Amino acid sequence: MTDDDVLLVHGGTPLEGEIKVRGAKNLVPKAMVAALLGSEPSRLRNVPDIRDVRVVRGLLQLHGVTVRAGDEPGELLLDPSHVESANVADIDAHAGSSRIPILFCGPLLHRLGHAFIPGLGGCHIGDRPIDFHLEVLRQFGATVEKRPEGLYLQAPQRLRGTKIHLPYPSVGATEQVLLTAVMAEGSTELSNAAVEPEIEDLICVLQKMGAIIAMDTDRTIRITGVDRLGGYNHRALADRLEAASWACAALATHGNVYVHGAQQRTMVPFLNTFRKVGGAFEIDEDGIRFWHPGGQLKAIALETDVAPGFQTDWQQPLVVALTQATGLSIVHETVYESRLGFTSALNQMGATIQLYRECLGGTPCRFGQRNFQHSAVISGPSRLQGAELIIPDLRGGFSYLIAALAAEGTSTVRGISLINRGYEDFMNKLASLGAKVETPGFPG
Ligand SMILES: CC(=O)N[C@H]1[C@@H](OP(=O)(O)OP(=O)(O)OC[C@H]2O[C@@H](n3ccc(=O)[nH]c3=O)[C@H](O)[C@@H]2O)O[C@H](CO)[C@@H](O)[C@@H]1O
Ligand SMILES: C=C(OP(=O)(O)O)C(=O)O
Q: Per UniProt, which keywords does this protein have (predicted)?
């Protein structure tokens, strides 16, 4: 960790001003992968400059896709006409970089008949197995060999449509099915699919390319395979996870932040919860203003869930705001088994958060009988004090920033570059909201 990776945060100043969120981290890289399926170039707009986008850009280029900036800021032009002559000798350099490489499987099997996928990265918030992905690919007719360096896949013949039931509505496995089924022979029926807004947007991308995809109301997605897909011209939906993070930062610091680009349609469960806690917001055509209206914040009971429930990636920033609410809040994390570990640092800052292995919520979840501390009771309000913090993962990292901004005194936050994976230009955004932050050696 270098000095560049450390941030001093002088807390106690409300965040005030305006920032902008661009395309979603959980959609943009997948739309970029979809371009691999096309026989014509694609144009993706509203692309944020974050590490996950850079990683996928590098991987696509290794696979022969030409990726260049368009005329508009945040525009990428992706030309997949040379995929067959790609040279992937350096692909190992991308091992551990993000979770997106697993989504290259279907498109590469369609284009080349084989694929090598290096080890995956992503946040360490649970085991994060890929068993659903591998089972799905086998059902389409691929062979999969797991080796220490990665996955080797072959499609001995054209992949065939199939009937799949996911044991859990996994976002990634649903995307795996979509990106594979669109060009498989015949029809695919996927039941118990994930229906997150980013999945709907990926379906819009694929439909623009020529895919035939229908969504039923009961988590069933039906795909009719086609022989050829063209390119797309698409503006990525905005990042609802980043928008909610700034909303929580406004609430925890008694601030007032207008988030350009935030969309009500994709944030309804978050907005309901934000209002129950006592936060105020106002929606207009261009974005959403979030603020602390004064008075006491209220404790709540909350369960994370798959869409249309409360998104797990909203949980960590909200927990920091809940340390400022009066009474006992209960948070039951049902999507990842280990997403509450970040709270021990909040306790060192003065919060009172107790973790439990039991399901403290209305819905018993997959982790209840399995020894994971996946429920939290947060007792507030707490006066947070500055501390030494090491960023554990993406959302946990942003949550530490929020806590440091809300705290009295100075915090030293290490591993700050991890936040670049999903938050575009966050240092300038913090500065524009009046946050008192400095990188050691470069005060002010
Ligand atoms: C890049 C991206 O889009 N990341 C998002 C995506 O992650 P990702 O697609 O990895 O998350 P999943 O929806 O697949 O995971 C949800 C749950 O399913 C389990 N599971 C998943 C796949 C599998 O093969 N086997 C299995 O057991 C996971 O361990 C987890 O408990 O959706 C998550 C849930 O909304 C978000 O938190 C992440 O931000
Ligand atoms: C868990 C997250 O991302 P990833 O799946 O990329 O690790 C996240 O965005 O909070």
A: Cell cycle, Cell division, Cell shape, Cell wall biogenesis/degradation, Cytoplasm, Peptidoglycan synthesis, Pyruvate, Transferase
Residue 301: closest CA among 345, 362, 352: 362
Assess whether the C-beta atom of 336 lies below 6 angstroms from ligand 1. yes
Between the CA of 101 and the centroid of ligand 1 the distance, in Å, is 14
Q: Is the CB of 394 under 6 A from ligand 2?
A: yes
pLDDT band with cut points at 50, 70 and 90 for residue 124:
confident
pLDDT of res. 441 = 62
Phi-psi region of 176 (alpha: psi -120 to 50; beta: other; left: phi over 0): alpha
Task: For 166-262, list the strands marked E by DSSP.
Answer: 187-191, 212-215, 221-224, 233-235, 256-260
The reported pLDDT for the residue numbered 444 is 44
Select from 367, 347, 366, 349 the least CA-distant residue to 357.
367
The distance from CA 88 to its chain's CA centroid, rounded to whole angstroms, is 27
Bond from prior residue into 169 cis (ω within 30 degrees of 0): no
Q: What tokens does 336 get?
A: 């990842």
Check: complex ipTM more than 0.95: yes
Between residues 355 and 368, the one the model is more confident about: 355
Go through 315-338 and write b for each residue having 16 or more CB atoms within 10 A of its CB, e for each that does not.
bbbbbbbbbbbeeebbbbbbbbbb
With 60 as the cut, is the pLDDT of residue 442 above it?
Answer: no
**How many C-beta neighbours within 10 Å does residue 191 have?**
15
Our answer on whether the CB atom of 313 is closer than 6 Å to any ligand 2 atom is yes
Does residue 201 register a pLDDT over 50?
yes
Confirm or reject: Cβ of 173 under 6 Å from ligand 1.
yes
Which ligand sits closest to the CA of 169? Answer: 1
Decide whether any atom of ligand 2 lies within 6 Å of the 422 Cβ. Answer: yes
What residues are labeled active site? 123
- How far apart are alpha carbons 439 and 444 in whole angstroms? 8
Q: For the chain, which domains are there?
A: 3-21+238-438 (3.65.10.10), 28-235 (3.65.10.10)
> Is residue 313 annotated as involved in ligand binding?
yes
* Distance of alpha carbon 231 from alpha carbon 79, whole angstroms: 9
Q: Is the dihedral of CA 346, 348, 353, 357 positive or negative?
A: positive
The CA distances from residue 366 to 11, 165, 166, 394, in Å, are 38, 17, 14, 24
Q: Which residue has the tokens 């030409």?
A: 66
Determine the distance separating the centroid of ligand 1 and the alpha carbon of 198, expressed in angstroms: 13
Ligand 1 pocket: which of 55, 117, 168, 200 to mutate (most atoms <8 Å of CB)?
168
436 is in an annotated binding site: no
